[in-house]
Amino acid sequence: MKITILGATGGTGTHLVRQALERGHSVTAVVRDPSRLDVEPTPGLEIAVARELTAAALEPAVTGRDAVLSALGIRGNAPTDVCEHGARSAMEAMHASGVSRLLVVSASGAYSGPGDDPFTRWLVKPILGRALKNAFDDMRRMETAVRADTLDWTIVRPPRLTDGPRTGRYRTRTNRNVLGGFRVSRADVADCMLTLLDRPASIHTVVSMG
After folding, report:
1. Per-residue confidence band for 94, with pLDDT thresholds at 50, 70 and 90
2. Are 38 and 9 a contacting pair, CB within 8 Å?
3. GO MF annotations for this entry (predicted)?
4. For the stretch 43-77, what's the b/e string if a residue is b when 16 or more beta carbons lie within 10 angstroms of its beta carbon?
5. Burial class (CB in 10 A: 0-12, 13-18, 19+), 123
6. Number of structural domains, the chain?
7. Residue 162 is part of which domain span?
8. Rounded Cα gap, residues 208 and 111, in angstroms
9. H/E element holding 7?
10. In the chain, which end has fewer C-beta atoms inside a 10 angstrom radius, N or C?
């Protein structure tokens, strides 16, 4: 499959690029600075430089591909619109080029609801929501935009991210949170996204991890 990866130089994005190549996909890694891509030159890897996340800048990197995977995000809690803006630009570029499959990373911490135990739902997540208000607001706006679109989208919501190895031992739940799912490695998030890529049943669903 030919896939385009946004946020390719980030923690999850780097794992996405590496694992996608391992699975035999052809990868277009979208970056602002090619020197920051921590992936060895490999057959099947193409680097697309986009200084800004606009639809016009992304369309050449999307045209002719089968899917777009976004691992955009920020560390910290500064005011931001990178997730929302990146998703909107990617979707506009996808519509213009006829690409329909989209997977984006969000965060389960931004959503309380079914699947959470009472302690997590009524204490942990409200505290986390205040600490990461700006980042979570950006992800919520992104999800609203994605869910309103007609593309074949899947939203992946991991809990707290770690730099641990890929284990394949994570749990997933569809349209509900994962009970006791407090942390997961970025490598496992990448594994989950690439697995869902080939699962039509995940289209138009939110998949939480834990």
Report:
1. very high
2. yes
3. biliverdin reductase [NAD(P)H] activity; riboflavin reductase (NADPH) activity
4. eebebbebeebebebbbebbeebebbbbbbbeeee
5. exposed
6. 1
7. 2-209
8. 10
9. none
10. N
pLDDT at 75: 77
Pairwise CA distance, residues 154 & 40, whole Å: 29
CATH number for the domain spanning 196: value is 3.40.50.720
- To which residue do tokens 């390719």 refer? 8
pLDDT digits (tens, 9 = 90+) for 144-196: 999 999 999 999 999 999 999 999 999 999 999 999 999 999 999 999 999 99
Whole-number Å distance between alpha carbons of 125 and 161 = 15
Distance in angstroms (rounded) separating the CA atoms of residues 122 and 133: 16
Q: Which amino acid is residue 76, in one-letter code? A: G
φ, ψ of residue 131 in degrees (nearest 5):
-70, -30
User: What number is the average pLDDT over the span 97-121?
Assistant: 94
Return the number of other C-beta atoms located less than 10 Å from residue 163's C-beta.
9
DSSP character string of 112-139: --TT--HHIIIIIHHHHHHHTHHHHHHH
